[in-house]
Amino acid sequence: DSGVTQTPKHLITATGQRVTLRCSPRSGDLSVYWYQQSLDQGLQFLIQYYNGEERAKGNILERFSAQQFPDLHSELNLSSLELGDSALYFCASSVGDSGRAGETQYFGPGTRLLVL
Amino acid sequence: GQSLEQPSEVTAVEGAIVQINCTYQTSGFYGLSWYQQHDGGAPTFLSYNALDGLEETGRFSSFLSRSDSYGYLLLQELQMKDSASYFCAGPRAARQLTFGSGTQLTVLP
Question: How far apart (Å, rounded) are the C-alpha atoms in residues B97 and A101?
Fold first, then answer.
């Protein structure tokens, strides 16, 4: 158990809908990262927040947005869902802000999203 | 841009030693990490090399050669529970972690 929690574990929805994924980082971690993992794309970095502020953006679609709240939990909002958005969405956390390879990121169990 | 390349699959038997290679093309290099992921599970951190050379953690070791843009993960005394996907990861920018496509390791009895 990494100490990172994500809800829900599974989500089934229809195209065009909007969903919100939630993540609580490990106690004491200030950074939260979101990743998408699909069969054909591997683990793709989406976005990072540090202490409530956006720090880095990866290949995140405009239909997706995220935020980190004062209690440090984070939410990833996915809208106008398409079939191709079906994937595992992981949240990870780390103590600091660097996001560098050397700083261990602790991953949550993921949310499996299925868009029908 | 940055890309990290790994073999897609590796198979070995229990008790053996296996090496998973990772080559990368990047600038602004900060080091190379390795993560393990069991089917459907969360990736878990294994090791990090900031400098050239070998880092050892129990049965796992990781090596980096920055001049060759190359690293590897070495798993010794393989156990069935080591069957998983292994990802090398490196930063694309100061704050981003880019993962390789992963190597599926199958350990046979």
Answer: 6
